[in-house]
Amino acid sequence: MSYADGSLPVLGSGDSSPGRAFRPTLPVQQSDYPSFWRTPAWSWWLPVVALVVTVLLTLVASGIFFGVAMAIDVSSGRTDLEGWDPTEITALVFLANNLGLATLIPISFLISTWLFKQRPGWVSSVVGALRWRWLGKCLLLLTPLWALYVGVDIGLGLWQGGGLDLAVTPDTWVLIVGILLTTPLQVTGEEYGFRGVANRAVASFFRNPRIAVIAGAAVSSVMFMFAHAAADPWLNGYYLWFGLAACYLTWRTGGLEAAIAMHLVNNLLSEVLLPFSDLGEIFNRDVGAAGPAVLLGMAVVGIGVVLIVRNAD
Questions:
Q1: CB of 57 within 8 A of CB of 103?
Q2: Most buried residue among 3, 41, 223, 263 by CB atoms closer than 10 A?
Q3: How far apart are CA 284 and CA 286, in angstroms?
Q4: How far apart are CA 271 and CA 238, in angstroms?
Q5: 193 — alpha (psi -120 to 50), left (phi > 0) or beta?
């Protein structure tokens, strides 16, 4: 694992005031990813403000995208406000949800620079930048595994008597292009928000690095689970497991790249039939929406983690 060099600290605002000692805003010793905000300049209120501001800004941004999507749907006659069902999902509402989550990328950058006085690259990894080559390698490692999993999942559904019921709709091309453009941003936003901001904010409360890793992973993964608003216990178990796996990869590899890659192949390949399907069930997470078959997906996540760790630089 690579670490940041804390010998060249970044000075926060006011650190150069006469009579005051410098307070480095980068770690002054080797630090793993979750503990990277635990610097000499750390104060207890910084992670609290970070979490509150992140949630509020994300809600505002998501509300704006949702409002625009609804306005377009209403003006085009796609949606009737008088008889509108909150569970009704249109192509534009789906894409608006993706874009709302994508705003977690600039929000995390804002939190890093404004509150913790660390340039945005330090949110990506402990080397101060997103490691594109490593991200690409992770994608190459995980794509065949997830392609096999999705194929098996579809096959099991057909074997159990379920039909695919696919058709080209007026939204097909909008969804194909929209998914390819917005899903990478959506999953990256979630990783910067949950494995980046939330994970580091919680971990920063603990001096002991081991406790910090465990606390950051546990709390941020529970937050990730609740953010999906699922009532089904199988789905909640999957979301919690996925969050913990992504946190482990982030800690083990020193950055968000592996978690982004796993999240991206999972979402993109799981949405491969979406442009030809009914969107009505896409956000159905009520009790009974899933079952023991979720264990197969959890096993695939575990295998993916092993693949990444074995090939980590």
A1: yes
A2: 263
A3: 6
A4: 17
A5: alpha
> What's the half-sphere exposure (Cβ side, CA atoms, 13 Å) at 153?
23
What is the Cα–Cα distance from 63 to 52, expressed in whole angstroms? Answer: 17
Q: What would the pLDDT profile of 260-283 be if each residue is shown by its tens digit? A: 999 999 999 999 999 998 887 677
CB 139, CB 263: distance < 8 Å: no
Reported pTM: 0.91
Distant-in-sequence contacts of 65-74, Cβ < 8 A, 24+ apart = 65/96, 65/97, 65/99, 65/100, 66/93, 66/96, 66/97, 66/100, 68/96, 69/93, 69/95, 69/96
Distances (CA, A) of 178 to 139, 153, 185, 191, 283: 20, 24, 11, 20, 17
What's the one-letter identity of residue 80?
Answer: D
pLDDT tens profile 33-81: 999 999 999 999 999 999 999 999 999 999 999 999 999 999 988 887 7
Tokens 């709302």 sit on residue: 100
